[in-house]
Automatic annotation (TrEMBL):
UniProt cross-references to CDD domains, sorted A to Z: AdoMet_MTases
Protein name: Methyltransferase domain-containing protein
Source domain of life: Bacteria
Methyltransferase domain location: 45-80
A Pfam family per the record: Methyltransf_25
């Protein structure tokens, strides 16, 4: 899907999936493991945050979270439901450093993983 397509479905998506209840227990456990490894008060980038449901879960585990997404519509829903979440519309190439941990979730196009990972690497502290 393109960012325009995500903009169109943003409200329906956010209303249908307000949290992680639709996820498999193993997926939630993986997110929780990431949060535990990062540690309380660690800064995490939720790249492709969508409506912010993973961001919200990570915050509940004590992390500080920044949400970045291509879709301004999804970010509007994230701010509607998580008004505390700092967000930005970005392509993933505006790296500025400062993150101590990186966790990639879903929505990476097959064949683009290495390129996306290289871009996300720029957000992390060396």
């Amino acid at each position: 899907m393109t960012s325009d397509a995500y903009d169109i479905v943003a409200r329906a998506y956010a209303d249908t999936f307000p949290d992680l209840r639709a996820e498999e227990p193993e997926e939630i456990a993986l997110i929780d493991q990431f949060a535990a490894l990062a540690g309380v008060d660690a800064l995490a980038l939720d790249a492709g945050c969508g409506a912010g449901r993973v961001s919200s879960h990570l915050r509940g585990r004590g992390l500080r979270v920044i949400g970045v997404d291509l879709s301004s519509g999804m970010l509007a829903m994230a701010l509607r439901d998580q008004p505390w979440l700092p967000t930005a519309v970005a392509t993933g190439g505006e790296a500025s450093g400062g993150l101590s941990r990186l966790f990639t979730w879903s929505a990476v196009v097959v064949g683009a993983f290495r390129r996306r990972l290289a871009r996300l690497r720029g957000y992390c502290v060396p």
